[in-house]
Amino acid sequence: GVGSPRAAGFLTGKSDPATCASSEAGSRRASFDFPPINRDRAYDCIDVMRGIAEAKGASVARVALAWLLHQRAVTSVIVGAKRIEQLEDNIAATQVSLSADDLAALDKVSALPAEYPGWMLARLGEMRRVQMEAARVGAA
To answer: Would residue 26 be called left, alpha or beta, if left means φ above 0 and alpha means ψ between -120 and 50 degrees?
Structure first.
């Protein structure tokens, strides 16, 4: 979200399943795991962001911020930096242009699983749509 756009550093790309413990040593997340994240989905997002970052000559952290800034409902993000280099990288995210394909890949990998009753309403709606289509075709 806009208040912790990189999930307290997790979405910088410095973490991966093999090195998670060592990469988080000394970080805030090592002693206070907040905000809560689905690590499997986060690692999948990092993999996609890493590919985009390499193609654009940018950091994964920069792509994570750019992705958020590309969302229609977002006008600003709140960033935090311990070092000037981190602040400069955060600011440089405003210069990263993500293509429609980049955004689609990131949206797909980050999609939240459907929750009840939403998935049930969608299923019932689809069943009703099929019934209406069959009635329309039968009436023709």
So the answer is: left
Note whether 61 and 8 are within 8 A (CB): no
Residue 31 CB neighbour total at 10 angstroms:
9
Angle ∠(104,109,115) on CA atoms, nearest 5: 110
Q: pTM for this one?
A: 0.61
Cβ-contact 91, 30 below 8 angstroms = no
How many residues in the chain? 140
Residue 67 tokens read as: 């992705």
Q: What is the pLDDT of residues 21-77, one digit of tens each?
A: 434 555 554 555 555 677 778 888 889 999 999 999 999 889 999 999 998 888 888
Spatial CA neighbour of 50 closest among 66, 41, 37, 63 = 63
